[in-house]
Amino acid sequence: MSQTTPQAVRYGIIGCGMMGQEHLRNIALLPGASVTRIFEPDDAMAAGSLALAPGAQRANSLAEVVTALDVDCLLVASPNFRHAEQLREIAALRPLPVLLEKPACTSLADVRDLAELGQTYPAPIWVAMEYRYMPPVTRLTDEVHSAQNTGPVTMLSIREHRFPFLVKVGDWNRFNRYTGGTLVEKCCHFFDLMRHMTRSEPVRVYASAGVDHNHRDERYPDGTPDILDNAYVVVDFASGQRAMLELCMFAEGARYQEEISVVGPVGKAECFVPGPGRFWPTHLGEAPVPKVVISPRHPKGPRDLDVPVDPVALAAGDHNGSTLYQHQRFNALVRGQGRVEVGLGDGLAAVLMGLAAQESARTGQAISLREGDFSLQGLPPRH
Looking at domain 9-130, what is its CATH homologous superfamily? Predict the structure, then answer.
């Protein structure tokens, strides 16, 4: 029996730095997919991008990409502080399906503006929350939602012990005003996972954080970096569930980069996710394999389950294969064969949680997400 050739999908790329190039490597793995236009102002990054997508043309503006007739959908992977303005420009020019890199935006004003835009935008907007699609995280999420080995989950804990922020073009990721702050830029992934796993809405956030070790001796035209390098964040949910994030960005010596645990009255389930393979010390041999651990209360005795990742997907990026799995679903959506799994409302809720955590760390006060500036009211519906 002959197989049907997948419908061609032509991508236009807005921003092609480090993360944009990871997307290019993964788009290249999709049958029938191609990149036709790239807008990247930095010459070195543009050259690297065109080497990965030799059939693409470099555009001189966002508008040139969006209005090109050989573009079916858009990937926005520009610096965080550009996302909101670029999405508004896309909406005005030609509202195509968009895969929007996280965070969706970086300020309270832009959250409200994009929430309004989302009510009328006629095409799908998918926010790129890659962590949902890491195989061990997906397996853990299935455990949470089935409740078979845990019962109804009461507590959720996410620990990320990792390397400091990498160097980006123009060093924009050193400053809160460009990133939204570490708890937005980096941790929106984890706040999204909390909402996704609990299937509930957060009502209160409390954070304690600091700038204690990283980037303190760096100086830029914009001044001294103010980006947080460690934090604890506690989140209360309307369901009564509680979640905690522990972030440390000077702990790259750890075996696993992410450790997530969920606990209910029946048992505990955990997943362990290694960091990017290219950072694993070669003298230690092969990089660790992700795993899930199931620990029932009765009978006691944890069970370790390896969750290996397809080597092709693993080699295409730094996110445990998740970028490919996310692209497969977005590509199906563009072809009319899927649905939005992480919508604009999900992305904006994660930003609000991060902004509230930043404010809590600044003031020492718990921040309500039910009322006031950080309220989740009025966001597009969750997916």
Answer: NAD(P)-binding Rossmann-like Domain (3.40.50.720)
